[in-house]
Design goal:
Oligomer: heterodimer
Number of helices of chain B: 0
Helix content of chain A: under 10%
Structural class of chain A: mainly beta
Structural class of chain B: mainly beta
Number of strands of chain A: 9
Number of strands of chain B: 11
Largest sheet of chain A: 5 strands, mixed
Chain lengths: 115, 115
Amino acid sequence: DAKTTQPPSMDCAEGRAANLPCNHSTISGNEYVYWYRQIHSQGPQYIIHGLKNNETNEMASLIITEDRKSSTLILPHATLRDTAVYYCIVRVEGAGGTSYGKLTFGQGTILTVHP
Amino acid sequence: AAGVIQSPRHLIKEKRETATLKCYPIPRHDTVYWYQQGPGQDPQFLISFYEKMQSDKGSIPDRFSAQQFSDYHSELNMSSLELGDSALYFCASSLAGGSPKNIQYFGAGTRLSVL
């Protein structure tokens, strides 16, 4: 799996957009970008994933650069409950019966949303 | 919607004792993953199962074993416990051929304390 680089920490004001960057310059053509978050000692929570097109769901938007070497997770209106560690993970969208399924968690970004 | 159920939530053991952690995946999910998260660390992949067969293995000690049963629940057995085994243990489940493919959903975890 390609290595990702994220800033160790970021701050965001409540109600503002939180933009979390991730560099994955060695990403392979068949690897997706996944975002998970972990709110203090809870189980990691899936947010969104994408291959090359921008994606949006009820939680967030994912912007992937055209060369796919970096991406940005956008939380459009951050709340205090969005304070968490955010993990950017690149992985082949492999089926469970293969060795591609595991998630390799890196350092992550500690996002602190303040009032 | 039903989520991944882990039991027990908390477990306290003495050194050299054994422990068994249980994981009940989301209904119809066929793949289970186990992760270990030490204090102040990121989750690390231990082992995974697909359709009751081991599909991948990470940095799991030889003292640990796991299996997936016919009803798809999984158990992580830990023997000769050491102080360093104190950690959060997460189970995640996924549907290998689902759409999107193989998104992992995590349980709340089991906090193991070895005294």
